[in-house]
């Protein structure tokens, strides 16, 4: 079987290729081993899945945890292992244990680095929750809502296999009510096949002590369409990592990241769209707010490979800062190895215009109220999109955003 491995930096020209800097790794004093791996198999009867997890566990042993200077992470020591994490589901979707041969082939064929290889392999080797979504050809699946009540470490492996000419919507809603250290890492693989479409909405409401790493790989095939709304609110460290592979002619992808950091949160984002085929279209439109001493690092890659003729690629990012101590890093990247393309990228960091504040204050709002109204307005499009599927959920998300701004 041909295997595909996607990583953020993949610069090659004729016989030349880029040399990558290797992230320092730290071997923890305490790590998961055979005991935790065997515990992770307790809820699995699928032999193919067990075999896959075994391979990933062997690979996991060879890695240390990363030292991320940008996120102030100096390695990691895993929390006490929990072998099963319940998730509330609405809509038709299987637990990962129900994965079929085709799903296993997706796991085996498509691979990626994730935010870091150790965290990706951790999610796969020690998965304690996960799902398998497979639509039938031509089916329009009712929206699926997955609600995670985050109380213990989450290790998720999921596969979405969207069949030709079918349509699906998935909302992943993560919320933590406990104010204590929480950890989550994921590995999600999504294949959107010919003329199929998928809408994915990620809602990550993290507490100020949580470490949240969400890794997703998406391949879009001929004339397929995918739209992702990625909302990340808070978290000591929040690290979304989404890779799009526009593999088929006419494939389309839209990504709308939203982020909010307060206190000393670090939101470290990496979004990559890689264009391989003609007449593909990909767009990233990111917005966010940072306050207090928080930090937002946005890395967005548009990578147009040879053969992606008449591709359309665009990227924009806007960070609103509400504090002089908050820090924004915007690193939009545009890599083009094909002549006949349309591509653009831009990033902006700004503050609230005094005229807007004055306008609201003349209508009775205090300064703080005016700042909250203007800042929370950046999230309105995302809130409206959630409301289409669940009005109560949209109110919860809106309230959390308003409270934290």
Write up what this structure looks like.
Residues 160-377 form the SUF system FeS cluster assembly SufBD core domain. The chain has 405 residues and is an alpha/beta fold. The chain folds into 2 domains: 2-350, no CATH class; 352-404, no CATH class. Helix content is 20%, strand content 42%. The protein has helices at 34-40, 47-60, 101-109, 117-125, 354-361, 367-376, 380-389, 391-404, and strands at residues 4-6, 12-13, 16-17, 25-26, 65-68, 73-74, 88-90, 94-95, 110-112, 131-134, 144-149, 154-162, 167-175, 182-192, 197-205, 210-220, 225-233, 237-246, 252-261, 266-275, 281-290, 295-304, 312-321, 327-336, 342-350. The strands form 5 sheets. A 9-stranded mixed beta sheet has the order 7-11-13-15-17-19-21-23-25, with helices on one face. A 9-stranded mixed beta sheet has the order 8-10-12-14-16-18-20-22-24. The termini are far apart. The model has no long low-confidence stretch (mean pLDDT 94).
Summary, kept brief:
This is SUF system FeS cluster assembly SufBD core domain-containing protein. With 405 residues, the chain is of the alpha/beta class.
Features:
20% helix, 405 residues, 9-stranded mixed β-sheet, alpha/beta, 25 strands, 2 domains, globular
SSE topology sketch:
Layout: E1 4-6, E2 12-13, E3 16-17, E4 25-26, H1 34-40, H2 47-60, E5 65-68, E6 73-74, E7 88-90, E8 94-95, H3 101-109, E9 110-112, H4 117-125, E10 131-134, E11 144-149, E12 154-162, E13 167-175, E14 182-192, E15 197-205, E16 210-220, E17 225-233, E18 237-246, E19 252-261, E20 266-275, E21 281-290, E22 295-304, E23 312-321, E24 327-336, E25 342-350, H5 354-361, H6 367-376, H7 380-389, H8 391-404
Parallel strand pairs: 1-9, 10-12, 11-13, 12-14, 13-15, 14-16, 15-17, 16-18, 17-19, 18-20, 19-21, 20-22, 21-23, 22-24, 23-25
Antiparallel strand pairs: 2-3, 4-5, 5-6, 7-11, 8-10
Helix pairs in contact: 2-4, 5-6, 7-8
Pfam families: SUFBD_core
Domain SUF system FeS cluster assembly SufBD core: 160-377
InterPro entries: Fe-S_cluster_assembly_SufBD, SUF_FeS_clus_asmbl_SufBD_core, SUF_FeS_clus_asmbl_SufBD_sf
């Amino acid at each position: 079987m041909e295997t595909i491995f996607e990583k953020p930096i993949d610069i090659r020209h004729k016989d030349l290729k880029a040399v990558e800097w290797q992230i320092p790794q730290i071997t923890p004093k305490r790590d998961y081993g055979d005991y935790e791996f065997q515990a992770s198999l307790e809820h699995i009867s699928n032999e193919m899945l067990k075999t896959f997890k075994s391979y990933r566990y062997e690979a996991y042993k060879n890695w240390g945890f990363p030292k991320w200077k940008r996120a102030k992470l100096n390695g990691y020591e895993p929390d006490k292992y929990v072998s099963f994490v319940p998730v509330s589901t609405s809509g038709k979707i299987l637990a990962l244990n129900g994965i079929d041969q085709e799903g296993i082939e997706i796991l085996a064929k498509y691979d990626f680095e994730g935010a870091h290889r150790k965290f990706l392999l951790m999610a796969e080797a020690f998965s304690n929750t996960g799902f398998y979504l497979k639509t039938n050809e031509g089916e329009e699946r009712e929206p699926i809502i997955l609600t995670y009540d985050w109380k213990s470490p989450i290790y998720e492996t999921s596969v979405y296999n969207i069949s030709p000419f079918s349509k699906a919507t998935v909302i992943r809603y993560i919320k933590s009510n406990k104010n204590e250290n929480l950890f989550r890492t994921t590995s999600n693989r999504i294949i959107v096949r010919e003329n199929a479409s998928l809408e994915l909405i990620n809602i990550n409401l993290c507490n100020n002590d949580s470490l949240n790493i969400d890794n997703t790989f998406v391949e879009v095939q001929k004339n397929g369409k995918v739209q992702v709304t990625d909302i990340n609110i808070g978290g000591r460290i929040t690290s979304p990592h989404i890779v799009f592979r526009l593999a088929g002619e006419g494939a389309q992808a839209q990504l709308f990241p939203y982020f909010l950091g307060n206190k000393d949160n670090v939101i470290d984002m990496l979004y990559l769209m890689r264009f391989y085929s003609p007449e593909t279209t990909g767009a990233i439109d990111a917005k966010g707010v940072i306050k207090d001493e928080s930090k937002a690092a946005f890395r967005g890659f548009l990578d147009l490979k040879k053969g992606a003729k008449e591709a359309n690629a665009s990227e924009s990012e806007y960070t609103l800062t509400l504090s002089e101590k908050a820090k924004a890093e915007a690193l939009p990247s545009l890599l083009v190895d094909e002549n006949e393309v349309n591509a653009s990228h831009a990033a902006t960091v700004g503050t609230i215009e005094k005229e807007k504040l004055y306008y609201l204050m003349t209508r009775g709002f205090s300064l703080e109220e005016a700042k909250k109204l203007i800042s929370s307005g950046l999230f309105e499009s995302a809130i409206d999109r959630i409301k289409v599927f669940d009005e109560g959920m949209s109110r919860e998300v809106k309230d959390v955003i308003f409270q934290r701004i």
